[in-house]
Design brief:
single chain
């Protein structure tokens, strides 16, 4: 019943034109930022640690820009329930999908795409028609609320994409590769690793940061090409992404090179326009001490 109510509510809002939804987003910005102050302490702590060279006034400007974008992200995601494929691909424009097509024509049936919580990641991972004869798979973390989880799966698969639970990633990607299924698998690789997966550390946004290595480990095991999605925010409601090939033969790269290269490119994307990243995320909740402690307990 809860899912049905959510479905109807989302559908009704999605019927509204984008210009009306952005008016709603302006009100939502006030509610989230000014009234509820949603995760404001987390955002300010993250910004202060990431940009110590900036003044308080400059960080506040990024903060306001982020909450404006966050409100836009919410209404844009709702719009997935009632938007044409043509409009979606016009607003979330992939500049060079031929990068994937070329790799598949060269004998690589599966490609791994690495991106972050930047711009509107839901708009990029929702369409399976961007690449010739290839199915798009999204790695996702199941939500605790079953109704909300079901709703997001519906939104994410509306245009033919499919989802893979993070707990089944390795098995499913191996299956796609072995069965030579023409597929692209998207990893949101800027998430915080779990305590037991604090394996690789680097400097990211001025902080000592643990980076997920699962995508690289799969790529090296299967020798599957890895591509970085460099997202840019052009203006309200319009994004572009450039596919940047990190490695066509991951087995030939040094260990952790792909992970490090992803971190550097993701960092450059964020620094280009910091307001577009998900600053509410508790990205730096673990330290190297936590990793050492876990190893000793293990």
């Amino acid at each position: 019943m809860l899912y049905s109510l959510l479905y109807i509510w989302v559908k009704l809002h999605a019927l509204l034109p984008m210009r009306v939804l952005y008016v709603l987003a302006d009100f939502l910005y006030i509610i989230i930022y000014r009234v509820l102050r949603y995760r404001l302490k987390v955002v300010r702590r993250n910004l202060a640690a990431s940009f110590p060279e900036k003044s308080e006034q400059e960080r506040r400007a990024i903060e306001r820009g982020f909450y404006h974008h966050f409100a836009d992200y919410i209404v844009e995601t709702l719009k997935l329930a009632h938007i044409s494929l043509e409009e979606l691909q016009r607003r979330a424009y992939v500049q060079n999908p031929e990068v994937v097509d070329r790799l598949m024509d060269a004998g690589h049936p599966c490609c791994l795409l690495l991106m972050g919580h930047y711009g509107n990641w839901e708009w990029y991972s929702g369409s399976t028609t961007r690449f010739a004869d290839a199915v798009m798979y999204q790695i996702y973390r199941p939500l605790n609320n079953k109704a909300v989880d079901k709703l997001f799966i519906w939104l994410r698969t509306k245009f033919g994409s499919r989802v893979i639970s993070k707990y089944e990633t390795g098995r499913e990607v191996v299956r796609l590769q072995r069965n030579k299924v023409r597929s692209v698998v998207i990893f949101l690789a800027d998430q915080t690793p779990s305590r037991q997966n604090l394996h690789y550390w680097t400097s990211f946004l001025n902080q000592d940061t643990a980076i997920l290595t699962g995508a690289e480990r799969l790529a090296r095991k299967l020798d599957t090409p890895v591509i970085f999605l460099d997202v840019q925010m052009l203006r309200r409601g319009y994004y572009t992404v450039e596919l940047q090939l990190l490695s066509e033969s991951p087995k030939e790269t040094p260990e952790n090179w792909i992970t490090e290269e992803y971190a550097r490119r993701m960092e450059r994307s964020i620094l280009r326009n910091p307001a577009g990243w998900l600053w509410t995320h508790k990205r730096w909740k673990y330290t190297r001490t936590d990793a050492i402690t876990h190893e000793h307990k293990g």
